[in-house]
Amino acid sequence: MSALGSTLKKGIWQENPVLVLALGMCPTLATTSNASNALAMGIATTFVLICSNMVVSMVRSIVPNKIRIPVYIVIIATFVTIVDMLMQAFAPAAIYNALGIFLPLIVVNCIVLGRAEAFASKNGIILSAADGISMGIGFTLALVLLGAIREFLSAGTLFNVNMQCWDSGFAVMGQAPGGFIMLGFILAGMNYLNIRKAKKAGLRYDTPQELDCRHCSICKFGE
Amino acid sequence: MSDLTKKSGIIYLAVFLFLVCAIATALMATAKLLTDEPIAAAKTVKTLEGLKLVLDGIAYNNDLTKDVVELDNGFKLYIARQNALPVAFVIEGKTGTGYGGDVEGLISFNADQTIRTFIVTKHNETPGIGTRIPDRVRVKTITDVIKGTPEDPSLPGNATLDSFKGKKAEGDLKWTKEDGIHFVSGATISSNAANDLAWNAATALKNYLKKEAK
């Protein structure tokens, strides 16, 4: 239970996919110019992440080690394509209109592939699903935070509702450079909080051990 | 030789990967067969709703779904008639020049061939960047939300799509910025795709009416 609990928790703060792992920068910067887009992207990714983690975890023991990455890519791309077709056919039009354009962006999303490789290929189905949920929620929260700040600064709106503070604000925030700048501020703030917390407890703040380069298996091909 | 067929040998890996791809292809083909019909049905519903939107405010009394002409370039022309006289035209067409593939739209024309309303019905542009061209988003104000002002039922505006209003295909050259078309910087390809679609539709209508007049 404790393993499940910590898996569920870590994606939100300790190993947040955007703010700590710095994965998936491309959809992060593109879709966060607006909070509603960020939310839709987050929901679509969470859904795909949970399912792809479960599938990868199921096949993990039969996939030869040397070709596991191409196999995962094929699995995830197939899965997303089928979800796209099923959604277009059977989901209410409002849902497809809101989420449909985000699905093609997820096919090669490195969060999905990264979690398949770093977690689902080493853990059971339930833990992998929990990892998908937690990473998905962390991704959604980070995106919505970034999206809300950028949207408010650049257009004075939040979720397309005009807050009537200013009409034409800080234009650079609406563009990709603004995304990088804001992301930098959020990362700095997060590190500051982590370091302060460690100092109060009388410890030195290090990056979490499992994020260390030695624990990553992506380039360990020969074994 | 025995090395190649072992569990880590290249032949085993190649066969494995081939099987994975074959299964994936079979699954996708099945999904495609299953969803073809519902997708087509959903599209028809969307087109009918779109036709209502682009013809808003025009009085016509014929059944649009029966007054359809297939144009040479694959576009569809719907003719709205009041007592058998054409009062407006709608062209349903697509262009392959979008950033993420096809951009499909409905464009209504007045009887004098000027563009009336342009809506995009399907696109794959990048959310937040390219979507500024095709999406019509209504921005409410916080006062409206608090007071509960009822939603405006009219079509929300869009700087690019609305800039085609009143344009007519004349000559052989596509419209440019000088003609008052609103191009968005940072979304040049999406802007061009909208311009392409509108221009091709207007030209197709012009050619069709010229042929009919003969």
Structure description:
The complex is a heterodimer of chains A (223) and B (214). In chain A, α1 (2-10) runs parallel beside α8. The radius of gyration of chain A is 19 Å and the shape is flat. Chain A has 9 helices and 2 strands; from the N terminus they run ααααααααββα. Chain A is mainly α. In chain B, strands 1-2-3-4-5 form a 5-stranded antiparallel sheet. Chain B is globular, with a radius of gyration of 23 Å. The mean pLDDT of chain B is 87. The A-B interface holds A 30-34, 37, 40-41, 63-67, 70-71, 74-75, 77-78, 81-82, 85-86, 88-90, 93, 96, 101-102, 104-105, 157, 160-164, 175 and B 7-8, 12-13, 16-17, 20-21, 24, 27-28, 31-32, 34-35, 38-39, 42, 45-46, 100, 123-129, 131, 137-143, 145, 186.
Distance between the termini of chain B: 76 Å
What general form of chain B does the structure show?
A: globular
Pattern of helices and strands of chain A: HHHHHHHHEEH
**Beta strand count of chain A:** 2
DSSP summary, beta strand count of chain B: 6
Q: Which parts of chain B are unreliable, with pLDDT below 50 for 5 consecutive residues or more?
A: none
The averaged pLDDT of chain A comes out at: 83
Structural class of chain B: alpha+beta
Distance between the termini of chain A: 31 Å
Largest sheet of chain A: 2 strands, antiparallel
Radius of gyration of chain A: 19 Å
| N-to-C SSE string of chain B, H for helix and E for strand | HHEEEEEEHHH
> From the structure provided, what is the oligomeric state, counting identical versus distinct chains?
heterodimer
Strand order of the largest sheet of chain B: 1-2-3-4-5
Helix content, binned percent of chain B: 25-40%
Total helical elements of chain B: 5
Strand arrangement, major sheet of chain A: 1-2
What average pLDDT do the residues of chain B reach? 87
What's the tally of helices of chain A? 9
Strand percentage of chain A lies at under 5%
The radius of gyration of chain B is 23 Å
